[in-house]
Amino acid sequence: MKRLRITLWVIVLLAAGLFGLFAYQLSQPKDDFVRSAMVGQPMPEFDLEPIVESRPGLSRADLADGQPKLLNVFASWCIPCAAEAPQLEALERSGATIVAVAIRDRPEDVERFLAAYGNPFARIGRDDISEVQLAIGSSGVPETFVIDGDGVITYQHIGDIRDSDVPMLLDELRKAGG
Amino acid sequence: MIAEIGLAALWLAAALSVLQLVGGYLGARNEDSELAVLVRPAAVLQAVLCAVSFLALVYVFAITDLSVRLVAENSHSMKPLAFKLSGAWANHEGSMLLWIAVMAVAGGLIALIERRLPERTMMATLGTQGFVGIGFYLFILLSSNPFERLSPVPADGNGLNPLLQDMGVSFHPPTLYIGYVGLSVAFSFAMGALLTRNVTPDFARVMRPWVLASWIFLTIGITAGSYWAYYELGWGGWWFWDPVENASLMPWLAATALLHSASVLAARDALRTWTIMLGVVAFSMSMVGTFLVRSGVLTSVHAFAVDPERGSFILALLALYIGGALVLFALRANTIAEGERFSLLSREGALVVNNVGLSAILGIVLLGTLYPLLTEAFDVRVSVGPPYFNPVSAIFFLPMLVILAVGPLLRWREDSFARIRMPVLVIGAAAVAALVAVLLLTDIGFLPLLGLALAAGVAIASFMPLRSRNIRRVPLAVWGMCIAHFGVAVALFGMAADSAFQQERLVAATPGDSVEVGPWEATLAGISPVAGPNWTAMQGDIFVSYQGGEPTETFPQARSFWAPQGETSEVALVTRWNGQLYVALGNQSEDGRWQLRLWWKPFVTWIWYGGLLIALGGAMALVGRVVGDVRRRSTARREEERRAEEAELATA
């Protein structure tokens, strides 16, 4: 009987722990985003073909040329990517170098997209199977990464860039050594 | 107006549940309490009011009253009537109303007909029911009012999630909910017995039909849910160990254990504490399940109706009821006298092993479901899937099948192995024969192989209890047990055969192409657009023939819904007795070819036939028990009348 009572109190304690865990998790802000585990890591090796004639493709070597850069992951079929286009142009005017990866896209669609919304990109790589996107831990479009001069990812911005994000991204770029 | 009637009925029912709690508490302390006489009528009236409230909700959905917010958010005037009706409970608010309505009706039924237990225990039971009810009424009325009005009234509704526009879904959640609620009744009985220190075989007999009924509904609900995921999600699997699926599996495991332990208590007056404990655990699991599904603390493919505020409310109820019950139990456990003793080699012994096995699997599923939640608190993200659940639960499931085969052959209290040697040898021979046959004919994995062999053994064993009995005099409840155990064998065979022998082909095809998968040959004749009431689709026209026989025409679709927008894959299924061909149409690739996915799944349907057989067995046992009770009661009444007459004659 004594053993039974002890067992039962242990069960009560376990249940209390479980409720505590539930309560803790409920009070935690649920992030809807999946943060990349690659932040702080060097860019993986890759070499992407160009997707439009006017811009060269993109490789790992282009990102480790001593100069920090913004890497924009976008697609012509993505509406928020069109919405963030003015902010990308503002970043470029402020002196940021922006390179891009076009995800699962067609050359003619990208041409049309760039003609309509502007082209702040120095290089655009063609990622038909999302290989680079997955390798750097990006779970959607648009996302923007800050890469330092040695090709190390220092910051990840998920979703479209709003007006208010522009100074913050310039700041991150400066911290990366620009 | 109808919506307001529904809301008013709900408030009144809530008030009655308070009366039921207070009256029940006073009645449990003192049978002659004045309020105690009101408890039973309060429960019955509450049932009527809740039924009215639920019907009011169904009515506003049927006429698509868009001034009710819930209708505007979940329905659409263009929807077929059947889906308008099912829309009433295919959302958070409506499903909670259904929950409380079923619970109130169950409470009303108990109050109306149950007179076998001491009145004090009944008062404590109904009081507990009222107590549980209050929490759910407050939850609905304060945070999930289904009758809330909307102004301005929109021109049309948002429609229902396309994945849910399916007949299977219309009945899946209510079926599970009835199961959950049945367990709340078992919980109330357990608390009533514990509060009044009256854990007796009579208590087990009274509780058993409720456990049995809720177990039948849970079995059907899980079986239907598994089949729905199989054909609607278009992945071809039948169980994914998704948190929402686990949320329905855990109460089922607890209810299965409770059912068997209640049988021991009813027949032999043993396992008293254990039965009470399982009564608490079974209801806890249905509440934990509801919490996990509704609060959004776990991410799930089923993610719907996620709301942290509601999560907090359910958590508070969970802590109050389950925490309270466990504390009460821990305080009271030493006052429950020890039940009858028995040897390990006996019917009771086998049932205890079965209970321990089920509880272990329950623990494994619970741990696997909550583990991501635990590690997330320490900032480590993991996901737990089939590589954990399958082998770890198999460790307990496979030995339990052996117990399932042998247990029913044993006698109560004490038995010897020598007495059951013959039937055990027959069962073992069947399993070994199946094992050897499969090994010689095919080359398959270890677990499916073991599954096939055990299925053969269990199938034979399930009817062994009938040997040397007069078949016509076997009680219906025993037939029920045999059928349910046979269902386990059938389902197991389906699972093992599907995982061992299924074949899959994924091809890009243009009209005119033929594909072979297993014994089937499929020819894509054409692709054309079709339109339904609230969707358009690309429809494949595919001729399939089994072993070169007469071709059957099938029409898999890739559907696009417009209110709300979404896409579903309507697979085409060709069912034969020995399996199913599963044809899903995917997207068109850039070169104009269509993705076709074909599976030949031998005996996969036996999984769900098995599930239905298990439920059928349960239903037979339920009918057998209830009819038996009614008969015994009328015999007792006649006996009493005869005695009264004799006494009258004697005095005259």
Query: How would you state the average pLDDT of chain B, rounded?
Result: 87
Q: Which sequence of SSEs, written as H and E, runs from N to C of chain A? A: HEEEHHEHEHEEH
User: Strands of the largest sheet of chain A, in order across it?
Assistant: 5-4-3-6-7
Largest interface: A-B, 18 and 25 residues
Q: Tell me the β content of chain A.
A: 15-25%
Radius of gyration of chain A: 22 Å
Total count of strands of chain B: 10
Strand content of chain B: 5-15%
Strand and helix map with partners:
The complex is a heterodimer of chains A (178) and B (652).
Chain A: H1 2-27, E1 47-48, E2 58-59, E3 69-74, H2 79-83, H3 85-93, E4 98-103, H4 107-117, E5 123-127, H5 131-135, E6 143-147, E7 153-158, H6 165-175
Chain B: H1 2-29, H2 36-62, H3 69-74, H4 81-87, H5 92-113, H6 119-143, H7 167-195, H8 201-232, H9 243-268, H10 272-295, H11 308-332, H12 347-377, H13 386-406, H14 421-441, H15 446-462, H16 476-501, E1 503-509, E2 514-517, E3 520-531, E4 535-546, E5 552-554, E6 557-562, E7 565-570, E8 572-576, E9 579-588, E10 594-602, H17 605-651
Antiparallel strand pairs in B: 1-10, 2-3, 3-4, 4-5, 4-6, 6-7, 8-9, 9-10
Structure report:
The complex is a heterodimer of chains A (178) and B (652). Chain A has 178 residues and is α/β, with parallel strands linked by helices. Chain A has 2 domains: 30 residues; 129 residues, Glutaredoxin. Helix content of chain A is 38%, strand content 18%. Chain A has 6 helices and 7 strands. The termini of chain A are far apart. The model of chain A has no long low-confidence stretch (mean pLDDT 86). Among the domains of chain B are: 161 residues, no CATH class; 101 residues. Chain B has 652 residues and is α+β, with helices and mostly antiparallel strands. Chain B is built from 17 helices and 10 strands. In chain B, 63% of the residues lie in helices and 11% in strands. The chains are: A alpha/beta (178), B alpha+beta (652). At the A-B interface, helix 1 of A face helix 10, helix 11 and helix 12 of B.
